[in-house]
Design a protein that fits this description.
With 159 residues, the chain is an all-alpha fold. Helix content is 81%, strand content 0%. It is globular and about 60 Å long.
């Protein structure tokens, strides 16, 4: 068994929380994007069976990973430290801070990508509802980061 220092343990815990949060945001975000497309097809009169729904969702989960997951990781790599700076020394702010910070990071990423790179990584975000759904994925991931990361321990130490 390896004995880790307190600092090493914090780094490992934070890295694990970050990776899980990225994965959570990706799975929820990609799944919601797929549902948005399938809902549009249903509105056009197409019959979407459970098999088609399952196949489309699994196809998108696998197919979008190489491009969308790194974008989420980049957004969180900026958003989480900014959130930490804002919440530092403020007991009780971390939970809502990470939820709001990750929501905002995803929204900002989707708003900047078309402006900077002329690319929309998730077509559903061209509509307000789709953009908010992706932000929701970020918010859930922010809560997961809060639960798994050092945030709860630091919050207890603050006060």
């Amino acid at each position: 068994m390896v004995n880790l220092s307190k600092d090493e343990s914090v780094v490992i815990r934070s890295a694990f929380a970050f990776l899980v949060a990225v994965l959570v945001a990706y799975v929820i975000g990609a799944s919601l994007a797929t549902q948005h497309v399938l809902a549009s097809l249903t509105e056009m009169g197409m019959d979407i069976t459970f098999g088609v729904w399952l196949e489309a969702t699994s196809h998108d989960l696998l197919g979008m990973f190489a491009t969308y997951a790194p974008l989420i990781a980049l957004a969180f790599a900026i958003g989480i430290p900014v959130t930490l700076l804002i919440c530092r020394g403020r007991p009780g702010w971390r939970r809502i801070g990470y939820i709001t910070g990750c929501f905002t990071a995803i929204i900002v990423m989707h708003l900047l990508m078309p402006q900077v790179l002329d690319v929309t990584p998730v077509a559903a975000t061209r509509l307000f509802g789709g953009l908010i759904q992706q932000g929701f994925a970020g918010a859930v991931a922010g809560y997961v980061f809060y639960l798994l990361g050092r945030a709860r321990l630091a919050e207890a130490e603050d006060g």
